[in-house]
Amino acid sequence: SYSDFDKPATKTPYVRNKLVWPSSAAENIVYLRDWQEKHFKGDSFLFYYHLMWNQYKDPGYRNLSRVIYEDMYNLKKLRLGGNISCEVFTCQIPNDFPHRIMARTLWNRDVDYYNEEKQCFLETYGAGAAAAFAYLSNVSDAFSLIYRYYNDPENTREEQRNFAANVEKIVLDFKPELEKYLSMPLPRAQHISWELLDVHTEYIIAYARAYRAKYLGKTKEADRQLEVFNLICDKIYTKYAKY
After folding, report:
1. Which of 9, 41, 39 has the alpha carbon at shortest distance from 26?
2. Which of 20, 114, 126, 188 is deepest in the core (most CB within 10 A)?
3. CB-neighbour burial class of residue 72 (10 A; exposed 0-12, middle 13-18, buried 19+)
4. Cα–Cα distance for residue pair 112/66, rounded to 1 Å
5. Are the C-beta atoms of 209 and 168 separated by less than 8 Å?
6. Cα–Cα distance list, 172 to 10, 137, 160 (Å)
């Protein structure tokens, strides 16, 4: 996140057609500061992609939401006037907390992240808020392997082999809570939220199996599982797009 903006960093000299792209937030900010101080004194803003593809790396949304909050909080320190979010249209499953915390922090950077998180889960899941939060936190922590895989593939081989099984265990452990709240007479909006958690448990299993196969070099199996994932997503969209 941009909370790392104040770490030491240097610019790479510009050489035409031989660009070396920054690899950290701190490096990017060095270029921003130079631009602000030497070339442009007016208002400017962040145009960024928090919800373009990162939700596929964190389908629990817990870790992603924290990064979004920290980036919106730090806009003022970066002397940026706001944020335009470039994102896919349908990334509110399992819930809309990433959008909510982005909007609330843009409106009031002193908003309390944990209070917003707690309130969002209470409104979305009712009496089962704690169970839903625990489940999605476990999902986020499990899928953090996707980030680490691309940075350090050789040191996570055991995790790669067990990845799908670990995700399936998270789902299996959550099923009793899921079934309990699906059978309760909840307000309609909360019941739909639990239905969405139900389909969420389906597609993250297929998704995890696809990644496990990819990790292990089983391309055909990865493609097959990804097709299962796509079919589940099509079913979800057909049923819930009207909401």
Report:
1. 9
2. 126
3. buried
4. 12
5. no
6. 48, 15, 19
Torsions phi, psi of 83, nearest 5? -145, 135
CA distance 204 to 168: 9
Q: Which of 34, 115, 46 is nearest to 85 (CA)?
A: 46
Distance CA 182, CA 157 (A): 37
10-16 long-range contacts, Cβ below 8 Å, gap at least 24?
none
Q: DSSP label at 86?
A: -
The predicted model gives 33-50 an average pLDDT of 91
Q: Which helix (H) or strand (E) holds 46?
A: strand 46-48
CA distance 27 to 47: 17
pTM: 0.90
26 within 8 A of 95, measured Cβ to Cβ: no
What average pLDDT does range 46-51 have in this prediction? 92
Tokens encoding 190: 């909360």
Helix (H) or strand (E) holding 177: helix 157-182
